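Student:
Attend to each token:
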Amino acid sequence: MPTTRDTGQFTYFLLFGAIAGIIGGVLMALFTMVATATYLHMGFFTPMYAIAAPLIGRQPLLTSLQGDTFYLALGPVLLGLAVHLLWSAFWGIVFGLLARWLHLTGGVAIFCGLVYGVLVMLVMSFIVVPIVGAPNLLQIVGLFSFILSNALFYGLPLGLWPVLQPRLFTGLTTRQAV
């Protein structure tokens, strides 16, 4: 039976998983928004409109796809960001639990974070997005940009978490784990 201290430490661990996921989610969103506004020639907020579309409709998304780089509908952008960060936090917690169970540290944790980012992309693109009826960002931004944003900008921060806090995953100090 877990003690109050164990429960507090586990809650702390889950919170760190959510924070790591949110950090990765913010980095991924920033990269994707810069990509859509620059070399993909869409609106800066297009990814946020795509995420919010199942809840508010596709009109803001369609408007952002028509060439106005900085078209802004604040409500849909904030809703898309909130939904994106909630999913990011959820997947961050799942990664933390898996990494703890597997006792990931060092380069293996980083590599697993990168792979995990791609796996999350696949689950979201081919299972979650069709279920909720959202536009598929994989099709909108392209395979290269989407893999880069998910692996590097989402998965890497998750993979660095066990490297920076190995005691949460193995009980070892940073120096012992590296």
